[in-house]
Amino acid sequence: MSSPETVVLMPGDPNWPASLKERLATSAPRTLQVLGPPSLLTARKTALFCSGKAPGDAILRAYDAARRMRDEGVTVISGFHSPIELECLRILLRGSQPVIICPARAIDPFRVPPQSRQAFNDGRVLYLSPFCGQPKRVTRESAIRRNEVVAALADQAYVAHAEADGLTDHILKQLVEWKVPIMR
Predict the structure, then answer these.
(1) How many Å apart are CA 16 and CA 163, to the nearest integer?
(2) At what angle do helices 83-93 and 56-72 cross, to 10 degrees?
């Protein structure tokens, strides 16, 4: 089986999200690399964020929120990088709703992981990256940039836990500044 091809979206594309320019202004990405149906970008999206370390009660609430979003058919967008976000992805992939996965690296070339292959083949998973060519591996800077793009694309957000002065806390403040509704 051959690997699917990535597509580069540009601002003139009908699937280009207007919120990128509105929220990020001159720091908006010039292109987006996508793998999967770009039309998923036109759906109402809930961003999912969680710090790498979280207390037990926040973890349980995050899993409950992921099940609720799955059962309600909510399109979820996230980097799905922290351990809690990854477990939420596993929960979401058991549903039938769209999921937008944003790695903090370029996705060309990219091999769809086995755990999301069926949902990808069903047309309900979109991989999206604001990076073309570089970086090949996740860096702190690429994670920060990816999180900014995910936040800019969100119509609302669920922040399971934000460690004080951490990367997720920074994104939470940005979401509040942009007046993105935060689900609790």
Answers:
(1) 32
(2) 30
CA atoms 111, 116, 122, 126: torsion sign:
negative
What distance separates the 2 farthest-apart alpha carbons in the chain? 45
Q: How would you classify the pairing of strands 182-183 and 125-129?
A: unpaired
Which domains, and CATH codes, for the chain?
7-183 (3.40.50.450)
Q: Is residue 67 packed enough to be buried (19+ CB in 10 Å), middle (13-18) or exposed (0-12)?
A: middle
pLDDT of 2 above 90: no
Query: pLDDT of 41-74, one tens digit each?
Result: 999 999 999 999 999 999 999 999 999 999 999 9
Q: Which residues pair with 49 in a beta bridge?
A: 159
Q: Nearest to residue 53, comparing CAs of 92, 101, 85?
A: 85
**Residue 28 phi/psi, 5° resolution?**
-65, 145
